[in-house]
Amino acid sequence: MKIIAANWKMNGDFEFTDRFVREINSVAPKNVIVICPPAILIGKFRDFRHQIGAQNCFWKESGAFTGENSPRLLREAGCRYVILGHSERRSIFHETDDIIFEKYKAAAANDLIPIICVGEKDPKNREEVLERQLAPFLKEPLRKAIFAYEPVWSIGTGITPTRDETEFALEFLRNRVGDVPLLYGGSVNGENAAGISQYKNADGLLVGGAGLKIEEFKKIILI
Ligand code: 13P
C-alpha cells in the first residue's frame, strides 16, 4: 500500500471539485489517497472517501496574521495532512528551513501529519541542499511526519530523475529521518507512477499537475 498525495496548487475550482469527488469516490484504490486542494475548497470534500490535506499552514493558533490559516482550523475543517516547505513556498514566499520547522511543530501539535518537501534546484548540489533542509528536523526525535523528495528541476517539467538518482536521494533521507514514509514528487504521471513507486525506499508519490486530470489520476491511484 502506497501513499498517493496530490497537490492541486492554486488550481481546481468548485465545479471541478464536485466532479472530482464523485469520480474518485467511484473507484476503490488500495492505496492511501490524500488530496491537498486550495484551502477555500477544503469544505467541498465533506463526502470524500479519502484524506484531505492543506498546502500550507501558519505556526500560531490565532492572532494578527492576516491571510494565514492555523493548523487547528485546518484540522477542524477536516484536514489530516499538511504540505510544508514546498519549493514554491520556499522560493516565492521566502520560507526558510527554520520557518518550515516551526510550521512542522505547530502542525504536529495539532494532530496534522506534515508532508515536508525537500529537494535541490540543481542536481550538482543534491546532498548539500538535502543536508541543509533536513538539519532542523534532526535536532530532536521526529514526531509524526512524511518527507517528500521533490527535485525542483523536475517539478512541472516532464523530466524525472533517473532511478539511481531518486533511490540515492531517498536513501539519503532514510538514513537521516529513519522509518517515516518517504514520497517522490516531480512530473509523476499515469505512465511513470507505477514504476517510480517501486523504487527502493519509495512509500508513495506526491503528484502535481496529474492530480487535476481525473482519468490520469485514477490510473495513478490504482497502481
Ligand atoms: P508536477 O507533478 O506538476 O511536476 O508537480 C509536482 C509538485 O510540485 C507536487 O507538489
Describe, in plain words, how this protein is organized in 3D.
With 223 residues, the chain is an alpha/beta fold. The protein has a single domain, classed as TIM Barrel, CATH 3.20.20. The protein is 33% helix and 16% strand. It contains 8 helices and 8 strands. An 8-stranded parallel beta barrel has the order 1-2-3-4-5-6-7-8. Strand 6 (146-149), helix 6 and strand 7 (182-185) form a beta-alpha-beta unit. Helix 5 (126-134) runs parallel beside helix 6. The longest helix has 15 residues, at 163-177. The chain is globular and about 45 Å long.
Tell me briefly what this model is.
This protein has 223 residues and is an alpha/beta fold. Helices cover 33% and strands 16% of the residues. Helix 5 (126-134) runs parallel beside helix 6.
Whole-number average pLDDT? Answer: 97
* Count of discrete structural domains: 1
Largest sheet features? 8 strands, parallel, barrel
Bound molecules: 1,3-dihydroxyacetonephosphate
CATH topology: TIM Barrel
What is the CATH superfamily? Aldolase class I
Number of strands: 8
